[in-house]
Design the sequence.
C-alpha cells in the first residue's frame, strides 16, 4: 500500500500541529500558546508573541547578570578584606 499524497490543507494542518506540539514547546518552554489552527493564525500569534518573548528573555538575562555581578562583587570585596588582615 503506497502512502496517500497529502492535500495542501492537511499538510498545513499537520505543520501547525507540529509547531504547537514539538517545535514551540522545545524552543519556548513554559510559554502558554493560544489555540491556533491555521498557518495564518500561527503567523499572527508568533508575530505578536516573539516580541514579548524577546523582551522577557532580555529581562531574564539582565536579572541573571545583575545577580552574578553582585555575587562576583561580594567575592572580590571579601578577598580584599582578607588581604588586609
Sequence:
Amino acid at each position: 500500500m503506497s502512502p496517500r499524497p497529502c492535500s495542501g490543507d492537511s499538510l498545513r494542518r499537520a505543520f501547525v500541529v507540529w509547531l504547537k506540539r514539538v517545535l514551540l514547546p522545545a524552543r519556548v518552554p513554559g510559554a502558554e500558546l493560544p489555540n491556533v489552527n491555521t498557518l495564518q493564525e500561527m503567523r499572527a500569534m508568533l508575530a505578536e508573541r516573539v516580541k514579548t518573548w524577546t523582551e522577557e528573555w532580555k529581562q531574564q538575562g539582565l536579572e541573571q547578570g545583575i545577580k552574578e555581578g553582585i555575587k562576583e562583587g561580594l567575592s572580590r570585596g571579601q578577598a580584599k578584606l582578607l588581604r588586609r588582615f
User: Anything to note?
Assistant: Residues 8-84 form one domain.
